[in-house]
Amino acid sequence: MTTASPRAALVPPDVLRQVRLIELRTRGVVNSLFAGEYRSVFKGQGMEFSEVREYQAGDEVRNIDWNVTARMRRPYVKRYIEERELTVMLAVDLSGSERFGTRRRFKSEAATELAAVLAMSAIRNNDRVGTLFFTDRVEHVVPPRKGRRHALRVLRDLLVFRPEGRGTDVGGALEYLSRMLAHTAVVFVISDFLGADVERPLKRLARRHDVVAVTVEDPAEIALPDVGLARLSDPETGAVLDVDTSDPALRAAYAAHVTAERDGRKRLLRRLAIDEVPIRTDAAIIEPLLRFFRARETRARRR
Questions:
Q1: Mean pLDDT value of segment 27-42
Q2: Contacts for 233 with CB less than 8 Å, ≥ 6 apart
Q3: Residue-averaged pLDDT of the chain
Q4: 167: phi > 0 → left, psi -120 to 50 → alpha, else beta; which?
């Protein structure tokens, strides 16, 4: 496992250009679409006293400072500001199954785009952001920090880091985060969650932290395409299987398996009160994120 050092390693100019391009693109999205949603959904850890000022029409009566009011012989109220100091942690799955895609991009590319938007949203709101990359092991950790320069390092690592492992151990990554994060954080777990037994570590992490599951899918994983005889290779184990995709019974059995796995995951997330943001390789990430923000905002208003 590697940990980001304070000094950035030498980065090729083409990668730096990609980082700047992603920064410009995501900054536009963040400023135009997520300016209010992110801040309203992810509240700070409390309220901090700011000042006492004279009462104005519309002020909350409960905020009246009675000691100052008695001394000054006219009403004064206490003002508070939100203590942000949020930590946003992006746990990104870089296993072999993420290097798969049959439409516009690989799943890993969709995950990188979403992680970049979240990182820039956090930095814009003066929050700390960090990353943890994992496969069947924890591969790389960037400790949470603030600032644009740190955000650019996060973007750079999302682009250039090459994992050693090919398998997936989501549970191990969650356990690592539970030990690593000393204070309450917002944790985005970005993975396809394929075959992952995560209930116990997910439950433990969600006890102390605000956990959001970002599920990354490709259309070919949801419905087996009818392309006749095909040789399929497991990107994590390398195992090869020859199948006849034109067999209706085979496609029906595959669809039933996928549906059962997805439904099971959704039930687990609902039981643990963990929000899910589903993204796909053949669609933009903006709409799923906006739906997530707005659904949370609606729930908060109802409470």
A1: 69
A2: 239, 240, 241
A3: 86
A4: beta
| Percent of the chain whose predicted confidence (pLDDT) is above 90 | 52
Torsion sign across C-alpha atoms 281, 287, 293, 295: negative
CA distances (Å), 217 to each of 38, 278, 287, 299, in order?
24, 8, 15, 26
Other C-beta atoms within 10 Å of 42: how many? 19
Cβ-contact 279, 216 below 8 angstroms: yes
Summarize the confidence of residues 17-21 as an average pLDDT.
75
Residue-level pLDDT at 33: 61
Any idea where the domains of the chain sit in the sequence? 2-38+85-302, 47-83
CA proximity to 215, closest of 99, 93, 116, 101? 93
The average pLDDT across 235-242 equals: 88
DSSP 8-state secondary structure symbol assigned to residue 182: -
CATH fourth-level superfamily of 2-38+85-302: von Willebrand factor, type A domain (3.40.50.410)
The pTM (predicted TM-score) of the whole model is 0.80
Helix or strand run (H / E) with residue 220: helix 219-222
CA distances from 129 to 123, 147, 214 (A): 7, 9, 17
